[in-house]
Amino acid sequence: MVNGGGGNTFTILNLLFAHFNPLTYYPRLLFIFNRNKSANY
Question: Is the CB of residue 30 less than 8 Å from the CB of residue 22?
Fold first, then answer.
């Protein structure tokens, strides 16, 4: 995944998927958050 102009759309899609299946969303959110934090800093 490339962080850029499409990031907002990707986040919205994740929020939509979270509404249907939060059990798979939250671990993925933590993974993405940790990956982005390590990539940004």
Answer: no
